[in-house]
What we know:
The chain has helices at 6-10, 13-22, 50-64, 96-110, 165-175, and strands spanning 33-41, 69-72, 87-94, 130-134, 154-160, 189-190. The chain has one domain: 50s Ribosomal Protein L5, Chain: A (2-Layer Sandwich), CATH 3.30.1440. The protein is an alpha+beta fold.
Amino acid sequence: MAYDSLHDRLRGPITKTLQQRLGIKNVNAVPRVRRVVVNVGINRSKMEGKEILDYIADCLARITGQKPVFTRARKAISNFKVRQNLVVGAMVTLRGRKAEEFLDRLLSYSLPRVRDFRGVPSKLDGHGNYSLGLRDHSIFPEVPPSDAKQIFGMQILIETTAKNDEEGRALFEAMGMPFRKSGKKDDGSIASAGASADTPDSK
């Protein structure tokens, strides 16, 4: 049986399912994915030096298929030893087909690689958008196995056109987002591919 990509399913069975579930007659009013933002926070104590920045940029480019942009501090904060214009993060913004292809790989290949996986947190932001924290970037098959010192976490924000959490959750469930069953603790992130759920965040 041939595998239908998320791009095709969003314009076929998923749209029909959402119309029936939400009672929407106009196909253009069905909630859709607007953009996906992949963000990596750079901890100076663990990610100091040009080599690690190049490594993060290369991994993000492999994972998303798009060159990342480094974000810099707007002002100096002496308590955190942050200087103005210091690199503090890297981010990629995906739209259209690239965003759908990334989500397809995330749901179909990457999340199943997480060790002792029990689902992702089910809480949305109140406006139909969803944010997911990953502790280990190596769950993506696009990147080669890395040393423990090179592992970094990332935040994935999925912005939709949904008007509320009900519409947003219906969209994510139709896409196949493996939400955690009720009764499980939501800590905002999931475990890495090579660590237990008690592994501290690598950011």
